[in-house]
Amino acid sequence: MVKKQIDATAEQRILAAAKKIFLSRGLDGARMQDIADEAGINKAMLHYYFRSKDKLFEMIFEDIARHFMPRIVEIFESDQSLFQKIETFCGAYIDQVRQTPYLPVFVLSEATKRPSALMKKMFDNKKPPVHLFFQQVQKEIEKGIIKPINPVQLFLNMLSMCVFPFMAKPMLEHAAGITKKQFDALMEERKKMVPAFIIASIKK
Asked: Which PROSITE patterns does the annotation name (predicted)?
């Protein structure tokens, strides 16, 4: 019993340390030695619990997905108006990626290599109710509230406008000299700007 409690405590320290290191340095920039140092253990013990950096990163991702993906499902299933849903989704997505900036890179990488495995990790192998959003878009078109648009294209616009700035962050820092503080301010502004832009583009 005591050993199991010690093991659990050590594992939680490692996961907390790994999350901190991954957040600040990303998957490629993080080293197992850095994680071991942050957790206050030696590298041998770290490898005893987690054999590879990729495996550890995967566990961190799954933990984030378990907390974040239900929020996305909740938004799609809510009785909010279409415009409110766009605003809520963009705000929630940008907030999450600000907390875990490595998430889009990991998702794109996994989606290319192992799409089925990614869906299982993110949604417990269940399809997210995106179809409800698509149906709502179609109804708004039929009512004459918004301009005709392919619901999938609308959803892609929402995703890409929220995600791309985080993918482009290194370029902004290098080419435009954007600091972390300035980037955070831009993303806070973007939470309002993106949905406003999207809504203006479809509203009649």
From this structure: HTH_TETR_2
pLDDT digits (tens, 9 = 90+) for 8-28: 688 888 988 888 888 777 777
Domain with residue 97: its CATH number is: 1.10.357.10
Collect the ranges in the chain with pLDDT lower than 50.
Answer: 1-6
Residue that is written with structure tokens 């495995």 in the block: 117
Distance CA 117, CA 124 (A): 10
Q: Which residues contact 85 (CB under 8 A, 6 or more apart)?
A: 75, 76, 78, 133, 136
114 phi, psi to nearest 5 deg: -140, 70
CB within 8 Å of 170: residues ≥ 6 apart = none
Q: Which of 92, 94, 83 is nearest to 202 (CA)?
A: 83
H helical segments located in 78-142: 82-99, 103-113, 115-123, 130-142
> For residue 5, what is the domain's CATH number?
1.10.10.60
- The answer to whether 146 and 199 have CB atoms below 8 angstroms apart is no
Span between the terminal Cα atoms of the chain, in Å? 65
Domain boundaries, position 95: 61-202
Q: What is the pTM of this model?
A: 0.76
Place of tokens 């920039």: 29
Position 47, amino acid: H
Residue 85 · residue 136 · CB < 8 Å: yes
Residue located via tokens 């892609």: 156
